[in-house]
Design brief:
Distance between the termini: 35 Å
CATH architecture of the largest domain: 2-Layer Sandwich
Order of helices and strands: EEEEEHEEEHHEHEEEEEHHEEH
Strand content: 25-35%
CATH class of the largest domain: Alpha Beta
Structural class: alpha/beta
CATH superfamily of the largest domain: ATPase, nucleotide binding domain
Largest sheet: 5 strands, mixed
Radius of gyration: 17 Å
Helix content: 25-40%
Length: about 260
């Protein structure tokens, strides 16, 4: 299990940045795990990724403590990017479907991390951060992450569109996309039936968005047991970290 043993992070070997420019601590908060690494000026990892499981329940102060422990063994960094599974705006969490919105609504996670780490912080939806790590920057590009739930992000010619919480929108027979193709659905119906659900969801999103390319990420993308339609590409699960460098290259509505 890379970067962890019994739920604890293991200090990675330190290495100098491979490219000039500010180094970025990239944190990817998922419903099942918290991941992080440090990127050099070109977006390459300076150290191996570290990971700890995400406990449930996990109130904000516990989350903050876990993140600080997670990044402690990593090399020094100049700035921080954070992907969070929910709606975020101006450094604050608005919704946290996997961690209890009633606990997180209004929590200034970006400010708390800035105070604790002493570095500037950018906080954005996790699917949107992943998108910054994979998009080509041409036309309408969409990201669908398949993990604990289903995250989405939309880009137009490389620019991030306003966030739409499509994961909470009805997908099929009253089930939201989170419920229809999330991890609980995969465990319940198995990879074969779940894959058919994913194909149905892709078709619906294509009709809704008319995207030029759809990128599918998240840990459960590897369980898709079906041929994907054209204009669809599976991307590496580390994209949620690799997008951390691109997040600093343009202003977003969440700044």
């Amino acid at each position: 299990m890379s970067g962890e043993q019994a739920g604890e992070t293991v200090a990675p070997p330190l290495a100098p940045p491979a490219s000039a420019g500010p180094t970025t601590l990239a944190i990817d908060i998922g419903g099942s795990g918290l991941k992080a690494s440090v990127l050099d000026g070109a977006g390459r990892m300076v150290a191996p990724r570290v990971r700890v499981p995400a406990p449930h329940p996990c109130p904000p102060e516990m989350m903050l403590g876990l993140l600080l422990s997670l990044v402690k063994p990593l090399p020094p960094f100049d700035r921080v990017s954070v992907g969070f599974p929910g709606v975020v705006r101006k450094g604050k969490v608005l919704t946290a479907p996997h961690f209890d919105t009633s606990l997180y609504a209004g929590f200034p996670l970006g400010e708390k991390l800035r105070e604790a780490l002493g570095r500037p912080v950018k906080l954005l939806n996790d699917a949107e951060v992943q998108g910054f790590g994979v998009i080509a920057g041409h036309g309408i590009e969409m990201v669908l992450t398949l993990g604990t739930g289903a995250g989405t992000a939309l880009f137009c010619d490389g620019e991030l569109a306003p966030h739409l919480e499509l994961a909470q929108h009805p997908a099929h027979k009253g089930k939201t996309y989170d419920e229809y193709v999330g991890r609980a659905a995969l465990d319940k119906v198995g990879p074969k039936r779940w894959s058919k659900r994913v194909l149905r969801a892709i078709g619906q999103l294509d009709r809704l968005v008319n995207y030029d390319m759809l990128y599918i990420g998240g840990g459960n993308a590897a369980h898709i047991a079906a041929d994907l339609p054209e204009r669809t590409k599976i991307v590496a699960n580390d994209a949620g970290i690799m997008g951390g460098i691109a997040l600093w290259k343009q202003r977003t509505a969440s700044d």
